[in-house]
Amino acid sequence: MKNDPRIVRLLKRYPKGEDFYDASIDVSHFDIDRLLEICQCQKDSELSVPRELGEFALGHFGQAFGIEFDRSEFDFYLHSYVRAEFVSSYYSDPTVTSKPAPENGPPTKIPLPEGMQWFSVRPKEGREHYEAYEISEDGSSA
User: At 98, is the secondary structure helix, strand, or coil?
Assistant: First the structure.
């Protein structure tokens, strides 16, 4: 099975009890079959929703990146997103077998008030979760 270049896959680190991740690693370069093995999944559709990673997966990623993942202070999730520039074409493609969330937030049919921006936060009930936050003039969220 080949990787779909329209999909970006990120390993995100969330401090325990926090909604925002504080670090991420792009793991899109891992072959999809290898990711399925690492995450102990059978089908690529299982990677279309955020997946909390346990010791087995973190051991493999730790070896690959030469780092240690501290599960006592952090939770780690693998997120898959449709890259922003491919959202329209990806979701209208009848050959796709999984439907990850869009990279830049929920579908445009969900209204976003002016001056607000979508942020991906800690997954809720095993699904991607976005919240809208006001962006201040210096570019930070308020």
Answer: coil
- CA torsion, ordered 38, 44, 50, 56, to nearest 10 deg: -10
Burial (CB < 10 A; 0-12, 13-18, 19+), residue 57, is buried
Give the separation between CA 128 and CA 34, rounded to whole angstroms: 22
Report d(CA 104, CA 116) in Å as an integer: 13
Task: Please tell me the pTM assigned to this model.
Answer: 0.89
SS3 call for 61: helix
Q: Are 2 and 32 in contact (CB under 8 A)?
A: yes
Closest CA to 100 of 109, 91, 108, 92: 91
Q: Hey, CA dihedral for 135, 50, 129, 107, is it positive or negative?
A: positive
pLDDT in tens, 112-123: 888 888 889 999
Partners of 78 in the β-ladder: 11, 51
Structural contact between residues 121 and 20, judged by C-beta atoms closer than 8 angstroms: yes
